[in-house]
Automatic annotation (TrEMBL):
Subunit structure: Component of the EKC/KEOPS complex composed of at least BUD32, CGI121, GON7, KAE1 and PCC1; the whole complex dimerizes.
Gene3D superfamilies: Transferase(Phosphotransferase) domain 1
Protein name (Swiss-Prot/TrEMBL): EKC/KEOPS complex subunit BUD32
Function, as annotated: Component of the EKC/KEOPS complex that is required for the formation of a threonylcarbamoyl group on adenosine at position 37 (t(6)A37) in tRNAs that read codons beginning with adenine. The complex is probably involved in the transfer of the threonylcarbamoyl moiety of threonylcarbamoyl-AMP (TC-AMP) to the N6 group of A37. BUD32 has ATPase activity in the context of the EKC/KEOPS complex and likely plays a supporting role to the catalytic subunit KAE1. The EKC/KEOPS complex also promotes both telomere uncapping and telomere elongation.
Enzyme class: transferase
Chemical reaction(s) catalysed: L-threonyl-[protein] + ATP = O-phospho-L-threonyl-[protein] + ADP + H(+); L-seryl-[protein] + ATP = O-phospho-L-seryl-[protein] + ADP + H(+)
Any one GO MF annotation of this record: protein serine/threonine kinase activity
Superkingdom of this protein's organism: Eukaryota
Annotated Protein kinase domain residues: 45-280
Record-linked InterPro entries: Kinase-like_dom_sf, Prot_kinase_dom, Tyr_kinase_AS
E.C. designation(s): 2.7.11.1
One Pfam family matching this protein: Pkinase
């Protein structure tokens, strides 16, 4: 007698990995989730039919480790209107398949999402022109207990690192404008009782006017974003923080968050921009 698996399987996430391999999350018809890796490239794996997906190597994961439950009392569900321009929004999901954390600390992904939702909801109540505009969370009802998979923000043109590396930084006045905006956004985050903990160029976003790829493009907005490292002042920094060159000397992983952490990162930003300006 041959036993057959009555469940069905589908890809939940597919992602290219190193050396042409592919990592994936699989969701079954009982709302269980698995992760696995294939030696084949993503364009081949994504053509796998349902019966083939069922035969792929997979390891069971707890859904609760990856995605937190939706709480309608404390979270704002993002429900796009028919008139919503998809290009005007940015949907952020934890990069679950990129590193080895999925093998060693998978619960960190749900914790990081919850950490970000906590400050995002505060920003939703008290928005600021220099902090990314929060629009709500995406709730996946295929997952038990209605899990939050994504956080939605307004989309900006580019991050600050991209802006300067494309040669768009040409004048000292641009630096002054950027620094003033970042400082205002940072101070607003501090006023809400949080420390950003990862204030660096990749997490500062700009909206550019017409001819966005031209050095003459006007900077219309500068905002601080990417908030999943943010914790309340005095809490331990345990899940995520800025890379070492943006940390103050003496600050160690697991230390309590202080506003001085962001202030040090901000103090590094001016010289960093100045160096890029000198490069031309």
């Amino acid at each position: 007698m041959v036993l057959t698996d009555a469940k069905t399987y589908a890809f939940f996430v597919l992602q290219s990995h190193s050396h042409g391999t592919t990592r994936y999350l699989i969701l079954d018809s009982d709302a269980q989730i698995y992760w696995g890796q294939s030696s084949r490239p993503i364009h081949v794996v994504q053509r796998t039919q349902p019966l083939g997906i069922a035969r792929l190597p997979r390891t069971h994961l707890e859904v609760s480790d990856l995605f937190p439950p939706y709480n309608p009392l404390t979270m704002t569900e993002f429900l796009p209107s028919p008139s919503q321009d998809p290009s005007a929004i940015f949907t952020k999901r934890q990069n679950i398949l990129s590193g080895e954390r999925i093998l060693t600390q998978p619960e960190a992904y749900a914790q990081l999402t919850m950490q970000e939702i906590r400050i995002a909801e505060e920003l939703g109540k008290q928005p600021h022109a220099n902090v990314c505009a929060y629009l709500g969370v995406v709730v996946d009802r295929r997952l038990r207990n209605r899990r939050v998979t994504d956080i939605v923000y307004k989309r900006y043109t580019c991050d600050l690192f991209h802006y300067v590396s494309c040669g768009l930084l040409r004048h000292r006045s641009q630096i002054s404008h950027i620094l003033a905006a970042v400082y205002a956004g940072m101070r607003h985050i501090h006023s809400l009782g949080f420390v950003h903990c990862d204030l660096r160029p990749e997490n500062i976003f700009l909206t550019l006017g017409a001819d966005a790829g031209n050095a003459q493009a006007v900077i219309e907005e500068v905002v601080v974003g990417d908030l999943d490292a943010a914790v309340r002042i005095g809490e331990h920094v345990e899940l995520k923080a800025a890379t070492r060159e943006w940390w103050p000397e003496g600050f160690e992983w697991g230390d309590r968050a202080r506003t001085e952490l962001d202030e040090y990162s901000f103090a590094c930003l001016g010289p960093w921009l100045g160096e890029w300006l000198e490069k031309g």
